[in-house]
Design a protein that fits this description.
Elements (H helix, E strand, L loop, with lengths): L3 E5 L3 H12 L3 E5 L23 E4 L5 H11 L3 H8 L1 E2 L4 E4 L1 H13 L4 E4 L11 E4 L7 H11 L4 E7 L2 E3 L9 E2 L10 E6 L1 H13 L20 H5 L27 E7 L6 E4 L8 H8 L10 E3 L2 E8 L1 H4 L12 E3 L9 H19 L12 H10 L23 H23 L7
Parallel strand pairs: 1-2, 1-7, 2-6, 7-16
Antiparallel strand pairs: 3-5, 4-5, 8-15, 9-13, 9-14, 10-11, 11-12, 12-13
Helix pairs in contact: 1-10, 2-10, 3-4
Length: 439
Amino acid sequence: MIKKITVIGGGLAGCEAAWTVANLGVDVDLYEMRPQKNTPAHKTSYLGELVCSNSLKSKDPETPAGLLKSEMQDLGSLILEAATYAHIPAGQALGVDRHLFSSYITEKIENHPRIQVIREEITSLPKESVCIIATGPLTSDALTQEIQQYTGYNRLYFFDAISPIVNAESIDMEKCFRASRYDKGGDDYLNCPLTEEEYHHFVSELLKAEKVEIKAFEQNYYFESCLPIEVLAERGPMTLAFGPMKPVGLMDPKTGKRPFAVVQLRMENQYGTLYNLVGFQTKLKYPEQKRIFSLIPALHNAHFERLGSIHRNTYINSPDLLTRKLQLKKNPFFFFAGQITGVEGYVESASMGIVAGLYAHAFVADKKRGEPPHTTALGALLQYITTPNPHFQPMNINFGLLPPGEHRDKKIRKQKIIEKARSDFKEWFNIVIPAKAGI
């Protein structure tokens, strides 16, 4: 029997994975290359350092992030324990003092009797031990090459080109139509037409909008085939109409004519509750995205489950590579956790650390551990990142990932989704978590 698990990466996911495994009774070697080798984004040598926002999303238990947090809390999340300790006032958000938060995590991990923290860079994956890879969006070049050898060079991505996602219920169906270009592929797309006046107003506002400042380590992330829409718009007033908003091959059945411009929406999940704005990756600030994309007539009341972005990242094509237990299909000794799996956000990354820890422990202990139901927040995230998807992009937790309810009233339907998630999680938790476990 293997008596030790290696965890690579001392971020949120790596710390959660190490904490979970250790509390279940298995020793852990946790490797973190800082401060021996730093990254362009980190400022300290603390484990669990937050490099962007200091918010862990909403505290409201009726929100998707709140539901996920409640499941993580039951599983003994170290990250949420640290957040409670380092909490600062932030309205409905779970805001933390960065220094207190990361120092708390570091102290807890370094003082755990079953965890050994090793401050050195890993350049090759261990060949004869179970390993959880949780190196995050800034994986070192040497380890990146090693991961490529195991996953395939065309299945590892180095930047996020993310288009916004809207809730299907918030789309004005009277102002769009279903069709594929040239009637090829059935009616798979929702098409949002714009008149010439609406199009030029949209472009005008897009050009004036505030953009997110580019970080030094993101300078070279633009690819000609995946440019932000605002960069395309800067090339000329008609560039978008010949690019992602081209109306070619589409006829509006309401007018019998080809629209001046079209925004295509592609179904994002199997339930048809989420739609992706095709080709709308952007560096606009979030409030500006909501304002400008709402100028599209069919989206005037749109609820955005995820907003667009382009930023430096490293993530694998998890649907092709991983099992539902975050285990590499080609090598069962390797597990992946955190943002490298294709989840977005602090809480989501940490949650996948817990899941990887649970299943890595089950693997070395030769125990069976069922998967969280897809009706739970954890199960929905797992299902998203491990279900075949030709357009796979990183995703954060949202109710659109969970099976939709059937009640006509939106509020009642949402409440039933939450109640079902809590009930199914409790049933799963009571079966898979050992009663004497430290979590």
